[in-house]
Write a structure and sequence with these properties.
- The complex is a heterodimer.
- Helices cover 71% and strands 0% of the residues of chain A.
- By secondary structure, chain A is mainly alpha-helical.
- Chain A is flat and about 75 Å long.
- Helix content of chain B is 77%, strand content 0%.
- Chains A and B meet through helix 7, helix 8, helix 11 and helix 13 of A and helix 1, helix 6, helix 7, helix 9 and helix 11 of B.
């Protein structure tokens, strides 16, 4: 260790990029910084990140940002006002509700769907994939057959059938989407696990007496997480679209919840004369799922430079 | 010690035959378990429905004895595994139950509506491949250029836009404002009686019967939903084409072809694309399968009388037999297309054949 390295100012660029880190924290931060630099070179990815930060801020501050009540409208004076009307920036719907306010509150529902699906589906996929990949044998065969069966179903159609059975509502829609989303994650986690199942560090922990459970939890799973994050981010757009599709068919969030897909469905009736009622929520969906796609692309390129630009 | 040539050859042949038999067997097992899985999933979905299947038949004014009799007839008193066995037997013999909504057997309904969905998905995939492949090639060849960026953005929007919303906006523009296309549906009511389809693929029927008036009308109906689905498969196909082509263009045979003095056009279209074509076939098949699914929402918007509209209509009316039958059929077709593309891949790419 040279003296120069220890004298670097902590958290400065040189400190982060030093190839002889003096602490575990410095090494970790340094790696994160390199990934971040690669990510930040991609302008579109930054746009994606910006969109999602905006979504978070809007959802968090919905009470402050929304100019009107999203659920109770002004039937007397404000039915189907065009965009740009005073007090109704994006117009109002057939019940005199401000579309902007509904969009602002709807961002919470979108986030709810996205977060819950990720929280349910990703761990299922991670567990199934790592167990299957690490243990192998008939466990692997059985788990992968189950995964394949779920993969064989088209997502939206299976979600439709599930929601039809469970009854419409946003909770059931989330559950249905989660049930249909995990198989690709299991596949990825399994593939990753297979690549280092026989590597020496696993053999070393095994020699030290670690149980399979401990190896999977502490040594295999953490290594699968980064590729899983990329895949989940890339899937988010699809999840949002499926949720909106279910909402559009009346199987997702129920009125008067300001869910974007359901808002499009309610605007469909007067799309020829009052196009904005259906058009505005669609823009919101488009922007948010575009944000997730851009972010996912950028993350993939940053975490896996081999694939970059492909 | 060296074995006689003939022995070696027979042994090799035998080994080849047994490996072929093994792969056929593995294949059959895969298909069988997947179909079994589809049945299990639809069976359990059917079980958790809050709708009482007995009430759906006898109505809520039936006496307790009638109710009990129907319950026994439906086999609902049996243990679950026997119920599943009954269900599997029924489905595999083509009995999907009766639709409450149309009062027809579900299978009959599906046979009637499925060609419409196939036609739409075929047109969509065709458009997607015809435009998507050249776009992908262009993006790969001019990597990093404006053209590449444009193709990328077109693709990204395709991945991110809600299809039903785009369909609605397109209807407003092309039907209501410009009046370029026909009213949602598959064929004008004017032709409903003068045109008798035979195969169920209306475009094909009209062309075979030489009914050009009908043909034009059909075209005006299918143009927008077809183009919309085409856009979605284009997004996927162009992205994959680009990635395959980038891979091929970095291979050594391309350098060799350049050194030989072949024109760049020839290298791109005859050498690189030909090699990229093999995985592309799989991609196009998969995008066809995706369009079958995408048709659910598209058909709803365009009142296209296909399987998607059938499923959503049945959903609104709590017609579970129809919903599960449709789900099962789409699932089975999905599996079929996957297998087909896998086989095609093996046939087209000599490298995947077992030696």
């Amino acid at each position: 260790m040279s003296i120069a390295d220890t004298q670097l100012k902590p958290y400065s660029r040189e400190w982060l990029l030093s190839d002889r880190p003096t602490s575990r924290r410095q090494a970790r931060l340094g790696r994160a910084y390199i990934v971040w630099r690669r990510f930040a070179e991609n302008r579109l990815a930054l746009v994606g990140l910006g969109i999602l930060i905006l979504l978070l801020v809007v959802a968090a501050l919905a009470d402050v940002l929304a100019p009107n009540n999203p659920v109770v409208g002004d039937l007397m004076n404000a039915r189907l006002l065009p965009p740009g009307s005073p007090g109704y920036l994006l117009g109002s719907d057939d019940q005199g509700r401000d579309i902007l306010s509904r969009l602002v509150y709807g961002s919470r529902l979108t986030l709810l769907v996205v977060v819950l699906v990720a929280v349910i589906a990703a761990p299922i996929g991670l567990i199934v994939g790592t167990v299957s990949g690490y243990i192998g044998g008939w466990v692997d065969a059985v788990l992968m057959r189950i995964t394949d069966i779920f993969l064989a179903f088209p997502k939206l159609v299976l979600a439709l059938a599930l929601v039809a059975a469970l009854g419409p509502g946003i909770e059931n829609a989330i559950l249905a989407i989660a049930v249909t989303s995990w198989p690709p994650y299991a596949r990825i986690a399994r593939a990753e696990t297979m690549t280092f199942r026989n590597s020496e560090f696993i053999a070393a922990v095994k020699l030290m007496g670690a149980s399979p459970l401990r190896i999977i939890l502490r040594h295999v799973m953490p290594l699968c997480v980064s590729s899983l994050i990329v895949r989940v981010t890339l899937d988010m757009a699809g999840i949002i679209l499926t949720a909106a599709g279910l909402g559009f068919l009346g199987l997702g969030a129920q009125p008067p919840l300001p869910e974007w897909g359901a808002m499009i469905a309610s605007g469909r009736r007067f799309i020829l004369d009052q196009w904005w009622v259906a058009a505005m929520p669609g823009f919101a969906i488009l922007i948010v799922s575009l944000g997730f796609n851009l972010l996912g692309d950028g993350l993939r390129d940053a975490l896996d430079p081999k694939e970059a630009g492909q | 010690m060296t074995l006689p040539e003939t022995t070696v050859a027979t042994r090799r042949n035998r080994r080849r035959a047994s490996s072929f038999a093994a792969s056929v067997l593995r294949f059959a097992v895969t298909v069988a378990t997947t179909i079994f899985g589809l049945l299990v999933v639809t069976f359990f979905i059917g079980r958790v429905v809050p709708i009482d299947p007995v009430l759906a038949i006898v109505g809520d004014r039936a006496s307790a004895t009638v109710y009990e009799r129907v319950r026994l007839e439906l086999g609902l008193n049996l243990p679950l595994y026997q119920q599943f066995w009954l269900y599997a037997k029924q489905v595999l013999s083509g009995d999907f139950g009766t639709s409450v909504l149309t009062t027809n057997p579900v299978l009959e309904d599906i046979k009637r509506v499925f060609p419409a969905t196939m036609e739409l998905a075929t047109v969509g995939t065709f458009i997607g491949a015809i435009i998507g492949v050249p776009l992908g090639v262009l993006a790969a060849v001019r990597r990093g250029s404006i053209a590449d960026q444009v193709v990328r953005v077109i693709g990204l929007i395709g991945y991110s836009v809600p299809i039903f919303w785009l369909g609605l906006l397109a209807l407003v523009l092309f039907y209501a404002q410009l009046q370029w296309i026909a009213f949602p549906g598959r064929v004008d009511i004017v032709y409903e009686y003068s045109f008798t389809p035979q195969t169920g693929f209306f475009l094909l029927d009209a062309a075979m019967q030489g009914q050009w008036g009908v043909m034009w009308d059909l075209f005006r109906h299918i143009a927008l939903p077809g183009a919309l689905l085409g856009y979605f498969s284009l997004a996927y196909i162009s992205r994959m084409t680009r990635s395959f082509m980038l891979n091929e263009l970095s291979q050594e045979y391309v350098v060799a072809a350049r050194a030989k003095g072949l024109s760049e056009t020839r290298i791109i279209w005859f050498h690189a694309l030909r090699n990229a074509a093999v995985p592309l076939v799989t991609v196009i098949a998969l995008s066809y399968a995706n369009l079958l699914e995408g048709s659910v929402l598209t058909e709803t918007i365009f009142s296209w009388p296909g399987l998607g509209l059938y499923i959503t209509n049945s959903l609104q009316n709590a017609d579970m037999n129809a919903v599960l039958g449709g789900t099962l059929v789409i699932g089975a077709v999905f599996v079929g297309i996957n297998i087909f593309s896998d086989l095609l891949y093996r046939t087209l790419d000599p490298r995947t054949r077992s030696r």
